[in-house]
Amino acid sequence: MRCYSVWIFLGDSRMSDIVISTTDNSRLSLLLNWYANPYHTPIFMAHYLGFYEDEGLSPAIMETTDPSDVTDLIGQNKVDIALKAMIHTYAARAKGYKVVSTGTLFHEPPTGLIFLKSSGIKGFEDIRGKRIGYIGRFGKIIIDDLARRAGIELDAYETVRVGMNMTDAILQNQVDAGMGIGCFQQVELEQASGQETGILRVDELAGLGCCCFCSILFLVNEEYLAHNEDKVRRFMKATQRGVQWTLENPEKAYDLLCQNIPRLRTETFRKIYISCLPYFSRDLVNVERDWDKVGTYAQELGITDESMDAMSCYSNEYLPERPYADFQPLDGHYLSESRAAS
């Protein structure tokens, strides 16, 4: 039997074992894809500023201790909403989990092989003789696929699973480089080491043209969605308002985040926060082009086959028809709505 470990954030920022009411209709569980960090800021803003409460919701926001658990928990309908990357959504569907993305939180963060320049790595061919760290199963799949594309034998390098400790693994000389996000792990590594770092982006090495495979999405189980469509709509509406407020008040947002999660009040996390700001999706839309590209990439990686329908993996139906605004249009109509009606 596999055990899953998560923590829940309470109103005063403390954490305790998860206890979620099954009778209070305002409650829902939201499982983060990582420990709480700056790229989750819009969610916490929606929580701290009462945007979820305005929609009649009281979310229990949880962080995982193992990102691989998130797919199984949402796939088994053990949590209501979860964050996970696009490539993992395809993998979950291929595994038989009926999960659907209802929106995008973090769009196309640069993702790739992160390293200290002192390691001697300049191009992907330099992984020969090196130890390459990865977070979970799909990190290794991607590394091995890139090696295949580069004509590098699988025994010419070593892969090491380091989980959520990529930066420390590099600093402790457990690995020479590792898969990570440029606006997170690369910034963290540079700050912790005091050295110059580099990144070999997967989208460039694999010819994807975008880092959409690592876009972070809101996933729900189809069974939960069938009985909670209105609740999901209200959640997405409040979250979009959180993104909007974060982008329009970046300094206030970071300060409020740190007030409630004090461990994030460091120079490293401040720089990570600034680096993450450009990648927040203001409209939360699932981009069709991205799903098509990642669908093809998932097939190339052997995660899915041609029977996988990209349209079954996501829906924009639960996103707000109108963005949040303090004032409504004076004539009562949005331009897009007027065009659609004509």
From TrEMBL:
Pfam families to which the protein is assigned, alphabetical: NMT1
Ranges of residues in domain SsuA/THI5-like: 37-253
Subunit structure of this chain's protein: Homodimer.
Protein name, as recorded: Thiamine pyrimidine synthase
Reactions accelerated catalytically: N(6)-(pyridoxal phosphate)-L-lysyl-[4-amino-5-hydroxymethyl-2-methylpyrimidine phosphate synthase] + L-histidyl-[4-amino-5-hydroxymethyl-2-methylpyrimidine phosphate synthase] + 2 Fe(3+) + 4 H2O = L-lysyl-[4-amino-5-hydroxymethyl-2-methylpyrimidine phosphate synthase] + (2S)-2-amino-5-hydroxy-4-oxopentanoyl-[4-amino-5-hydroxymethyl-2-methylpyrimidine phosphate synthase] + 4-amino-2-methyl-5-(phosphooxymethyl)pyrimidine + 3-oxopropanoate + 2 Fe(2+) + 2 H(+)
Pathway: Cofactor biosynthesis; thiamine diphosphate biosynthesis
Gene Ontology molecular function: any one: transferase activity
Job description of the protein: Responsible for the formation of the pyrimidine heterocycle in the thiamine biosynthesis pathway. Catalyzes the formation of hydroxymethylpyrimidine phosphate (HMP-P) from histidine and pyridoxal phosphate (PLP). The protein uses PLP and the active site histidine to form HMP-P, generating an inactive enzyme. The enzyme can only undergo a single turnover, which suggests it is a suicide enzyme.
Entry keyword Thylakoid: no
Entry keywords, A to Z: Iron, Metal-binding, Pyridoxal phosphate, Thiamine biosynthesis, Transferase
SUPFAM superfamilies: Periplasmic binding protein-like II (SSF53850)
Cited Gene3D superfamilies: Periplasmic binding protein-like II (3.40.190.10)
Signal peptide location: none
Keyword Metal-binding annotated: yes
Family indicated by similarity: Belongs to the NMT1/THI5 family.
GO biological process entries: thiamine biosynthetic process
